[in-house]
Structures are given as C-alpha cells and as structure tokens.
Amino acid sequence: MARDTFNARQPGYIHIDDDTALHYRDWGDDAPLVFLSGWTLNADMWNYQCAPLADAGFRCVAYDRRGHGRSSDPGRGYDYDTLADDLEAVLSARDLARVTLVGHSFASGEIVRYLSRHGSRRVAGIVLVSPASTPFLLKTADNPGGLDPSLFEASIEEMLTSFPDWISRRAEAYFSPGTAHTVIQWTADMMLDASLYGAAQLSRVQMITDFRRELAAIDVPALVLHGDCDASAPLEITGHPTAAALENAVLKVYEGGTHGMYFNHAARVNDDIRAFVTRWQA
C-alpha cells in the first residue's frame, strides 16, 4: 500500500577525494534500492522509478556517476574499477546493507565489476535493465557474435565531432514510437550535460571489457529486464547471454520494449522490481 508521505532526506554529495564529489538523492525507508544510471545519463532518469517505489515503502538512493549530471568531472577514473569503488563509497557513506542494485545499460558492467571487486556482503540482489555492457561486446575469435571494433571507433569519432548530432541521429529509436519530443529532449539534455571526455573514455572501456568470467561468479539473485526492440543493446547480444551467464537469474523480455523502456514501460518495470525485491528480501 502506498504511503501518504515518505522520508525524503536532503540531497547531498559524497566526497571521494579532493577533486571528486558524487551527487546523490536518498528517498524513503525500508528495503534499499540503489540506482545506477545509463551512459551519459544521471539520477534524473530514474525519477519514474524512485518516486513511486519510495511511495510504496522502499528506500531509493540514486546518484550521478563521476563526470555525469551534478557530480564532479575530475578528468580521470573513467574505468570500471574506479566506478566500482565509487559505488562502494556511496553504499558506505549511506550505511546501506542488503541492497538491491538496479542498473541501466552501461551500469550493468559497473554492477558486475562491483561484485567481483567488493563482494556481495552489502548486496541482496541485482536488477539489470537493458544491459549494454555484458557479457562481452567485442567480436573476437572466442566471441564471434560480438560487434566489429570499427563500429565502436566510428561511433566515438562521430561523438567527438558533434555529440548533439550523434544523439539526434539515435534519439527516436531509443524510445517507443510516439514518445513525446519533450521526453526525448529531456534525455538529450541529460546526455549533453555529461563530460564528453568521460563519455568517450567509458565507451572505449565498455567496448573492450570481457565480463564473462565475472558474471559466472555472481551468486546473488538477478533479474534481467530487456526489450525485444532495443536498438542500442540488442537482446541477442546482451540480454539473453547476460541472463544465461548468471547462476541465479530470471530474464523478462518486454515485447516492443526499447532501450528507454524505463520510461515507456515504467509501471511494468516498477512492478517487476517490486516483486523481485519483495521475494528476495522476505
């Protein structure tokens, strides 16, 4: 049952070092959910999860990774190890345990690296929404279904030439058909607010990082939510093999779902997260 009000703490910053502070918001009580945003997005992308889930009795913590949103852009630390350490700093600063980590797109890799680097002592389960970093994107001899590296390099070169144009060419396919232009612009504004240098570095890291062994070592329950019309992270390259690599995972495929299904299918995403957490937190 929804509450009349929820505990909304003042947003603030977690200081990693002299050059780096991460902006966070922390709403609600009880079972904690920590939201990690997609590449170049920030905590605002989770507005349509955090508000209703906090109202339903969950504690929702969302933060902007370094170089994104309101957080610092130190010009370094754009690698999975550092991002995993940043996540540990957030969990420690907010004194969180038995957390469900919820990550979109690029953040799937962050969550996997966190678990391999810091273990699961704070983590009860994970939810990967439209995972785009796992298991391994690059085409190699032992990963023939991956993508040619020239595609990544061409995308990065295009982005560094004109990121607004890069976004514009991909915007409509990101959301479901008929999505309002205001929603698309809201998302583009978030992306343009990110560090361009950081975005390019993270794209390169995402391309070359092989998470297959790390995924296989994860023993906490996992929920993978993926759309069958995801142009940014095709289901057969990311969602299906990610779920198959995890020891204890459930894959839910959203018919007609795109990479932006956290918005277009927000109610269903929220229901699936709620049911998953309720089951494993019991």
Automatic annotation (TrEMBL):
Keywords: Hydrolase. Residues 32-265 form the AB hydrolase-1 domain. The keyword Hydrolase applies. GO terms for molecular function: hydrolase activity. Gene3D superfamilies: alpha/beta hydrolase (3.40.50.1820). The keyword Hydrolase applies. It comes from the Bacteria. InterPro entries: AB_hydrolase, AB_hydrolase_1, AB_hydrolase_fold. This is Alpha/beta hydrolase. The lineage of its organism: Bacteria, Pseudomonadati, Pseudomonadota, Betaproteobacteria, Burkholderiales.
